[in-house]
Amino acid sequence: MPRPIQAIISTQAMAHNLAQVRTRVGEIQEQAKSSNTVKTLAIIKANAYGHGTLNALKGFAEADGLGMIDLEDAVLCRQQRWQKPIILLEGFFHQADVEILQQYRITTAVHSFYQIDYLKQAKLGMSPIDVMVKFNTGMNRLGFLASQAQEVLSLLKALQTKGIVGRIGCMSHFANADLDSRYVNEAAEQVMQLSTSFDGPLSMCNSAASIRYPQFGIHAAENWLRPGICLYGSVPFDTQLEGFTDVTFKPTMTLMADIIAIQTLQVGDSVGYGSTFTADRPMKIAVVACGYADGYPRSAAENTPVTVDGQPARLVGRVSMDMLTIDITHLPHAHIGSKVVLWGEQGPSIDVVADYSNRIGYELMCGLTKRVPVQVI
User: Fold this and answer.
1) What's the CA gap between 127 and 100, in Å, rounded?
2) Position 61 in a domain
3) pLDDT at 252 (0 to 100)
4) Binding positions for substrate (predicted)?
5) What element of type H or E holds 59?
6) How far, in Å, CA of 366 to CA of 216, rounded?
7) CA–CA dist 112, 110 (Å, integer)
8) Which of 134, 221, 260, 366 is surrounded by the fewest CB atoms within 10 Å?
């Protein structure tokens, strides 16, 4: 029998969260009386943020397309009979990748001239490759400068004439969509001006922008939203605090484990490595079968919240490799086998745990380790 720990992945919550994004943007589109096409690309990079690529295929079955990083994942999705668009967000890296893009009808980002050089060497007579030209609008990671737009477009149109390239769209990525509107507005204006020269879709809005700045997701004749983290129930800002009370995302990953031991402490007794916690009163401490080797952050601070059989409790002492300890003094009915939710449904949100750990929710999702059994619902 495995250790009493498991992660529960909810494909139903994934579908709900996707619908929330569509509803939010749809309301803005209706207010603007816009008839432009708006499609939603569910981002499933990094093994669907730790949730499993195949699970995401089920959860996001109603998405208009998928966005990812790895070509192997794109091929897997095609082999699983996903027929709608797939976009490689970082593009491709090798000449040999081009034929695979053609074979599996995979759209690719193009952010550097070497990728255009690889496209020039593509086999003729195969399916044309749709491309999304990525522009650098302040992130300074990937993308062409605005001043290079016409040169890039000229090169790609020449390949379009040869049948190597299909539609040519454009995209960018906001560096501050969860923070500062000034930078977002400047970046959006720049890309919207550039997009008028392209015959393909425009894609700018990530999770934060899809909620905070959905007007930038309805600008062009055809728009692709790119929600990622919010589809998994984590939002990089406080939706309620910022007034988005009608947007409710559900957690898609719940991490839970059992109490496997209970210790009685007297005043002055300590808990865990380094004796960082010392009892100032008689206490009962529960040992939980979850540690940093499972993906729970070692940096989690004292008082990080959990729930025990639905009741709130707090972390005490350091998180160790295979165990952590919580205060159950106030929970007389807690026992060996009681269920402890570390994050997720009926427990603290993953973002709250991340805050207590000086981390972000993305890291915790992606950091769930292989030894944790997974149940998909």
Assistant:
1) 10
2) yes
3) 99
4) 141, 321
5) helix 53-59
6) 28
7) 6
8) 221
pLDDT mean by block of 10 residues, the chain; 377 residues: 96 97 86 88 98 98 98 98 98 98 98 98 94 93 95 97 97 81 82 87 90 83 94 80 74 99 98 96 98 98 98 98 99 98 98 97 97 98
What is the token pair recorded at 212? 């905070």
Query: How is residue 117 annotated by DSSP?
Result: H
- Check whether 314 is labelled as a binding-site residue: no
Question: Which residues contact residue 72 at a Cβ distance below 8 angstroms, ignoring those fewer than 6 apart?
Answer: none
Report d(CA 363, CA 351) in Å as an integer: 10
> 317 lies in a domain?
yes
**Phi, psi dihedrals of residue 42, rounded to the nearest 5°:** -80, 125
In this structure, are residues 209 and 184 in contact, taking their beta carbons and an 8 Å threshold? yes
What's the first-to-final CA gap in the chain, in angstroms?
Answer: 21
pLDDT of residue 25: 85
Same-domain status, 222 and 269: no
Three-class SS state of 144: strand
**Is residue 291 one of the residues assigned to a domain?**
yes
Cα separation, 251 vs 257, in Å, equals: 17
pLDDT of residue 188: 83
pLDDT of residue 286: 99
**178 in a domain, yes or no?**
yes
Burial class (CB in 10 A: 0-12, 13-18, 19+), 24: buried
Domain coverage including residue 305: 253-376
Q: Which residues are catalytic?
A: 45, 273
* 141 assigned ligand-binding residue: yes
Instruction: Quote the crossing angle between the two packed helices 71-79 and 97-104, to the nearest 10°.
Output: 30
pTM of the model: 0.93
Tokens read off for 136: 């650098």
Tell me, what amino acid is at 67?
Answer: G
Note whether 178 and 41 are same-domain residues: yes
Specify whether 205 is located in the same domain as 276. no
Same domain (yes/no): 123, 271: no
